[in-house]
Amino acid sequence: MAILGTIIIGFLAGLIARWVTPGNHHPRGFILTTVLGIVGAVVATWLGQQIGWYGPGDGANFIGAIVGAVIVLLGWNQIARRA
């Protein structure tokens, strides 16, 4: 059940991040949107641990996953614009 929950939260975070980020170079499809949300959560967790917001065993929450996914999308847009 934890994997299913991660997929659902990742998909929702990816959808919201795609919705709030400007640009048209967004990854398309269910799988890429889900991966975007999951990677966003990993990025948010890593950044939060580096800054000191999260402890070693803590992870990013839903809002953190969205913020992380937006960061990933902004990087994606920069790379896609150059290619």
Offer a quick outline of the entry:
This protein is an all-alpha fold and 83 residues long. It has helices at residues 2-20, 30-51, 62-82. Helix 2 crosses helix 3 (62-82).
Determine the N-to-C terminus distance.
Answer: 39 Å
- Summed up, the helix count is 3
Number of strands: 0
Strand-pairing-aware structural class: mainly alpha
| Inertia-based shape | globular
Average residue-wise pLDDT: 84
If you compute it from the alpha carbons, what radius of gyration comes out, rounded to the nearest whole angstrom? 13 Å
Largest sheet: none
In percent, how much strand structure appears in the residues? under 5%
pLDDT < 50 runs, ≥5 residues = none
Write up this protein:
This protein is mainly alpha-helical and about 80 residues long. Helix content is about 75%, strand content about 0%. It contains three helices and no strands. It has helices at about 1-20, 30-50, 60-80. Helix 1 (about 1-20) packs across helix 2 (about 30-50) and helix 1 (about 1-20) crosses helix 3 (about 60-80). The longest helix is centred in the middle third of the chain and has 22 residues, at about 30-50. The radius of gyration is 13 Å and the shape is globular.
